[in-house]
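From the pipeline queue, job 12 of 40. The input is one protein chain; the requested action is below.

Action: predict structure.
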Amino acid sequence: MSNTLENLSGQTILITGAAMGMGKMYAHLAVADHAAHVVLWDINAQMLEHAAAEMRGRGAEIHAYAVDVSKLEDIEAAAQKVRDEVGTPDVLINNAGIVRGKYFWEHDQRADIVATMSINTLALMHITREFLPEMIAGGRESRIVNVASAAGLLANPRMSVYSSSKWAVIGWSDSLRLELKQAGHNQIKVTTFCPSYIKTGMFEGARGPLFTPLMEPAAVTERVWRAMKEGTPMLMMPWTVKLSTALRGVLPIAAWDVVAGRVFGVYKSMEHFTGRK
C-alpha cells in the first residue's frame, strides 16, 4: 500500500520562514493542495501579514504568527498557540534560514555564529520536538521537511559557519527518519532537502559551479512538494550535488580539492557573494 499523500485535504501544515521566498511558495502550494489550515511563521510581522492576505479566501484557513525562531522561548510560546488555536500540524516544513558568507575569522560571535546555528540548526530541532510527540500519538500520515543544503555535504570557503549548520541538520534529520522507522512510527516521513544555489536573493552574488546553474525557486518548491508527499528520505538538487558528493567520497582530499577548486569552481562560488539586501 502506497504511503504517498494524494493531497492535503483536511490537513494542517506549518511553514517557517513563510513571509517571502520559497516559504511563501510552499504556503501557496498548500492552499492549492486543499489544506484545511496553513500556519505561517516568520519574524517579519509586516511581510507575514501581506503573505497571509494573498492566500485568504482561497479555501484554506490561514494562521499567521510572528515568531523569532532563534529563541526557544518564542518557539515554545508560538507552538502552544498553534496547539490551542489550530491543532497539531500534519506537515511541518522547517524552511527558515540565514546565510553569512565570509571567512570564519571575520564572523561576529553573536550576529553571525550564534544566529546562524540558532536559526539554521537548533530551531529545526526545537520546533520539531514541540510537535512530534503529538504527531506520533495522532497516528495520522504526517510529513516533516528539513531544509538543509548542498553546503552540508561539501565544505566550501566563505561558508564555514553556514556549512556547519547544515551538516548538523543533515545528520539530525536523517537520524530522526531512522528513529521513527525503528520505533514503528511509519506514518511519519522525514525528507531532508539538500539544494545548491537557488535564485531567491538569499545567495545574491554567488556563482553556481560547473554544470550547476542557480535554480528557479518555483521549480524547486514544486519538486520538494512532490518529494514531501511521496515521503522521499533525501532530495539533492540539482544532479551535480549527487555527483560531487560521490566524487568527494572516493577521491583523496588533495585530488578532490583540485577537482572542486579548479574544475568545478566550487571553491570560488562565494567569492562575489553579497546576500539579500
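Job complete. The chain has a mean pLDDT of 96.
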